[in-house]
Amino acid sequence: MAIKPLLDRVVAIKEQPQEKTASGILLGAAKETPAYAVVESVGPDVKDIKKGDKIIYKEYSTTNIKLDNIDYIIVDAKDILATI
After folding, report:
1. Top-level CATH class of 9-16+27-83?
2. pTM (two decimals)
């Protein structure tokens, strides 16, 4: 099932926290959730962001949705800080 955002909203899939560092050190339960995601779809009023972009967003400005065991977020384009 696809989520179709309205106006200037973006639907993205949250990145999962890493289990270990690049050097192989395992991270414990105190790890922080990253505030970045991969864009799945964009609303008709979004200009600078497209599907497949990796975004950094304001962490507490999203609507979280779990659909088919996938964690999605819906975020306003104005709350997206950057693309990677």
Report:
1. mainly beta
2. 0.78
Q: Give the pLDDT of the chain (84 residues) as one tens digit per residue.
A: 688 999 999 999 987 666 666 677 766 654 556 688 999 999 999 999 999 999 999 888 899 999 888 889 999 999 999 998
The partner residues of 42 in beta bridges, in order of sequence, read: 10
- β-partners of residue 10 are 42, 75
Domain ranges of the chain: 9-16+27-83
Distances (CA, A) of 52 to 10, 25, 42, 72, 80: 11, 29, 10, 14, 14
